[in-house]
């Protein structure tokens, strides 16, 4: 079977269905075109969730991100196969979430070089499965724009990855004690020869659940992440672990058992959580994902593909301190 890697927010890859360029400003003043990309995935009907959308700008200077500020997003149902007339759904304000370590100082959306991130709408509930359309109406550098992007919403009872409120898969993820090549524990070791973050590989998910420890778990491949989100997120996970050592154990799960040889093999831990066989017999996987698992082994929350550190900090602070 073919494994289709849906690596979120890569410039050349679109997640879900087609991403549409914006309508040009009426005065035709700019030659810049814009495209929306859905940066979140595995949306399901009937429960509030985060929806992340990235905006890319393309002109003679190349392809860059639109960053900063907030935008309005309106959602519409367009049928089981995407061919129906739009039926009005929820709308929300989406706030900019930067890749950890990049800037987000401005109050209004603008084209920037070097900064990367997405716009995140919180608490969006889709009332049915099918194809949905997100319509973005931002004002970018003083000019009104309009973009749409279509994406699937499924029934939670169908093919999906673990969701909040469900028991966490009790997976024996790799640790520093695992008798495997270092790059399977952390892909950064493929270049350095050493695992750079051993403190994130002390616990397996199964051990944390068995011992009643909350766990903040990041699935990502920092060396091979097309979106370039995974590396900064691993660094942020290290920071959170240092700042809140008594609230959870902190785990990084590497995606690939081997990336540089054929056939490529996904680590069992990542496959348990993220690799899914679709109805057409292809396999799909998205990453990165951040999960918070409670002491009872139930998933408290999940973030993908980016997370706002303030949101994660609030979730950690809501947990009681662990016993030493």
Protein architecture, described:
- There is one protein chain.
- The radius of gyration is 20 Å and the shape is globular.
- It has helices at about 180-185, 190, 205-210, 230-245, 270-275, 310-315; strands at about 5, 35-40, 45, 50-60, 60-65, 70-75, 85-100, 110, 115-125, 130-135, 140, 145, 145-155, 215-220, 250-255, 255-260, 265, 275, 285, 290-295, 300-305.
- It has 2 domains: about 5-155, Immunoglobulin-like, CATH 2.60.40; about 180-315, Glutaredoxin, CATH 3.40.30.
- The chain is mostly beta strands.
- The chain has 6 helices and 21 strands.
- The longest helix is centred in the C-terminal third of the chain and has 14 residues, at about 230-245.
CATH fold-level assignment of the largest domain: Immunoglobulin-like
Question: Class of the largest domain, according to the CATH hierarchy?
Answer: Mainly Beta
Strand content: 25-35%
CATH architecture annotation name of the largest domain: Sandwich
Structural class: mainly beta
- Poorly predicted tracts of residues: 1-29
Estimated helix fraction: 10-25%
* Tally of DSSP helical segments: 6
How can the largest sheet be summarized?
10 strands, mixed
What's the rounded overall pLDDT mean? Answer: 90
How far from one another are the termini?
46 Å
Which overall shape is indicated by the principal axes computed on the Cα atoms? Answer: globular
Instruction: List the quaternary state of the chains.
Output: single chain
- The secondary-structure element order is EEEEEEEEEEEEEHHHEHEEEHEEEEH
């Amino acid at each position: 079977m073919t494994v289709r890697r849906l690596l979120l927010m890569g410039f050349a890859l679109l997640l879900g269905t087609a991403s549409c360029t914006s309508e040009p400003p009426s005065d035709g003043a700019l030659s810049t075109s814009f495209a929306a990309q859905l940066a979140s995935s595995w949306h399901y009907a009937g429960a509030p969730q985060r929806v992340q959308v990235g905006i890319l700008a393309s002109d003679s200077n190349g392809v860059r991100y639109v960053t900063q500020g907030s935008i309005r997003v309106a959602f519409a149902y367009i049928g089981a196969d995407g061919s129906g007339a739009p039926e009005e759904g929820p709308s929300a304000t989406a706030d900019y979430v930067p890749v950890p370590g990049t800037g987000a100082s401005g109050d209004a959306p603008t084209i920037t070089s070097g900064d990367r991130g997405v716009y995140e709408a919180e608490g969006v509930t889709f009332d049915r499965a099918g194809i949905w359309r997100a319509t973005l109406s931002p004002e970018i550098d003083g000019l009104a724009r309009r973009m749409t992007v279509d994406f699937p919403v499924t029934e939670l009872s169908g093919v999906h990855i673990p969701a909040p409120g469900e028991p966490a898969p009790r997976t024996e993820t790799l640790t520093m004690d695992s008798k495997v090549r270092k790059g399977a524990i952390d892909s950064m070791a493929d270049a350095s020869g050493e695992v750079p973050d051993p403190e994130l590989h002390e616990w397996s998910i199964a051990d944390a659940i068995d011992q009643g420890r909350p766990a903040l778990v990041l699935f990502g491949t920092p060396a091979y992440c097309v979106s370039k989100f995974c590396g900064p997120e691993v660094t942020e996970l290290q920071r959170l672990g240092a700042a809140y050592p008594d609230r959870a154990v902190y785990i990084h799960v590497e995606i690939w058992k081997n990336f540089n040889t054929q056939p490529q093999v996904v680590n069992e831990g990542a496959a348990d959580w993220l690799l899914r066989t679709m109805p057409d017999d292809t396999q799909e996987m998205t990453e990165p994902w951040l999960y918070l698992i409670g002491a009872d082994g139930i998933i408290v929350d999940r973030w993908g593909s980016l997370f706002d550190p303030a949101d994660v900090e609030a979730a950690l602070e809501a947990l009681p301190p662990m016993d030493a």
